[in-house]
Amino acid sequence: MKCNFLNTRILAFVLVLGGLLASCSSDDDELIPTPDPTETRWITVAAARMGENPGDGNGGTLIYAINSEEAKDPTVSVDPFENGFIVPSNRTARLQSSEDGNTIFNISYAGDTGGNYTKYTVEGGQNFTQSGTSISIAPYVGSAPRWIKLFDGDQTGAAVYVSTEHQFDENENYVRTEATMGVLTLDLANSQIKEFQEHSIALSAEEEAEGYYISRIDMPVLNAAGDKLYIGVRLSKVDPATAESESNFEILGSKTIVLDYPSLLNPSVITSSVGHGNTNGYRSINAFLYNGSVYQANQADPDGSHILKIDANNEYDDSYDFNLDEALGIEDAYILAWRPVSNGKAVLAYRHAGSVEGVAGAQGFFALVDLEAKTAVKIDDIPYDPDFYLFQYQGFAVDGTEVYVTQAPVGENGNIYVIDTETGEVTKGAEMVNAEGSHFIGTF
């Protein structure tokens, strides 16, 4: 059947009534509040339209909302490309959602509106009503900001940037690369800048002398105490003799910037001896709080992606060794996106050395992960195709211990799939109607 929302007001009343009747609890060790799984919630499907090339997502972003019961129903059909709400953004929008799924947050990426923050109330179908005022953060972090919503009850967003400049001595010999970081926190409820700070971010003298520098930062996350902000890091390198960029260089231990919060002062850099490679992720949140520690994925690790652990002392726990290559029995695992839930299980999107090269890039897969047991199992009940492209994947809707994902090859129809992280059971849900060269980037 085709989805329609003639009875949206009735459904909204039921949702509100259900929310009033539900009991509330809080637990600092939980990743998110765990709602009653019998309640329905909005599941917003995000779709990225093709720009010039299949799978580039540069033609804009559209969203469409159905409730969780409909999302689990394979007879429901959703067509965001024909009927969806166009999210303001020159390229692929950087979306976030509230923990209950009732609000979508967006900061436009690039173009004339780049850096504009808006939020929308989810009302079903293509109906997303702007709530509150807009604000531009472009004067602080540019028109293409990298931002994320902190897990603090939907109160705060954090945006970051880094700029770099090679430095030379009086004889034109390369000395080091200066990396200047900007960090902004945003009051999501009131559309106001909370704090902004700039810092020079240095590596060790030995690392900088060899030409290493911080070239990209992203994916801030709060620690359990709420007094430190962690920011993921990508390193680049130049040849000190020529100051020319290098591509084939020794990969250093994974690093994270640590700042005081909420002041955003006193930056320092911590380093893992277990994982190597980058911790800045790409389009999806890359680090999460669980059971008092922060668990962080790394990418471009020569030994395959790891999930790393930062403990309450704000240092890497190098006794925690979770290598995805070993867990899945593959080579060159690369974590594209992931999302843990309150029981310590997680759904993870990845590619590896065996991935087929599709029309837009390497084939993607999903795995079910256990953070405490340090195990991972490929989810075989989701169909895979050479054109199933997950590099730009952004969102995993979480409802209790269930995780909603999208599956569709570039330019082809697919479905929502719901993974019960407790049992591993997978439910095939609503059909998603695709458009030529386009793809789906997740649920919210």
Global outline: globular
- Spatial gap, N to C terminus: 22 Å
Query: Percent range for helical residues?
Result: under 10%
User: Which blocks of ≥5 consecutive residues have pLDDT under 50?
Assistant: 1-37
Report the CATH C-level class: Mainly Beta
CATH topology: Methylamine Dehydrogenase, Chain H
**Number of distinct helices:** 6
- The beta-strand count equals 30
Number of domains: 1
User: Rg to the nearest angstrom?
Assistant: 21 Å
Q: What can be said about the biggest beta sheet?
A: 5 strands, mixed
Mean pLDDT: 92
- Strand order in the largest sheet: 3-29-28-27-26
- The assigned CATH architecture is 7 Propeller
Summing up helix and strand content along with how strands pair, one would put the structural category as mainly beta
Proportion of β residues?
A: 35-45%
Signal peptide: 1-28
Protein name: DUF4374 domain-containing protein
Keywords: Signal
